Amino acid sequence: MKLSALLGKARHSWAHRWLANALLPWLIPFNRPHGFRVVPLKDGGMSVTIPYWRINRNHIKGIHACALATAAEMCSGLAVIERLDPKEYRMILRELRIQYRYQAKKRVIASAPDLTRVIEEQVMVPLRAADAVDYTSTVELHDSDGNHVATGIATWQVKPWSKVRTRK
Known about the structure:
With 168 residues, this protein is of the alpha+beta class. It has a single domain, classed as Thiol Ester Dehydrase, Chain A, CATH 3.10.129.10. Helices cover 30% and strands 30% of the residues. It has helices at 3-10, 14-27, 65-81, 116-127, and strands spanning 37-40, 46-50, 89-100, 108-112, 133-143, 148-160. Strands 1-2-4-5-6-3 form a six-stranded antiparallel β-sheet. α1 (3-10) packs antiparallel against α2 (14-27). The radius of gyration is 16 Å and the shape is globular.
C-alpha cells in the first residue's frame, strides 16, 4: 500500500490510523523512541502528537527543542507526502528553522494545513519547467492547553526520480 493512500484513508478510519502509526516507526526508525502519533486532520492536513514522556524531556522538564523540531519536520514531510508519491518524487529536507515561543510542559501537537492546492501551484506546475523545486511549509506546534509552543519552517527539495543523478 502506498503511504500517501494510507494517510488519506487514516483520515476517516481508526483502523488505517492504527496501521499508519504501527508502520511509521518502522519506516522512520529515528523517530521510534519519541512515541510520535500521526493523526490526519479531518479537513485536510496532518498532525503529529509528541507525548510528554521522560525521553522527550530536557533537563528542566520541558519537551526538548530537538523533539519539537523532529515533530515539525515529520509533520511537514507527511503533509507533503500525502500529496506527492515518494515513488515518483524524491524529497530532501534542505532547511529546517524553528522559532521557539513557549516552554512545553505538556503533550504537544504539531499541525500542518491541507496542501492540496498549494502543492499543485508551487510544486507540480514549476516541475514541468525545472528539474527540481524548493517548497517551504510552515508547521505550528501547540501544547494541550493551546499555548503556541513553536513554529517550524521546513524547506524541501522535490525532484522527479528520473532527474536524480547519484554518479558523475
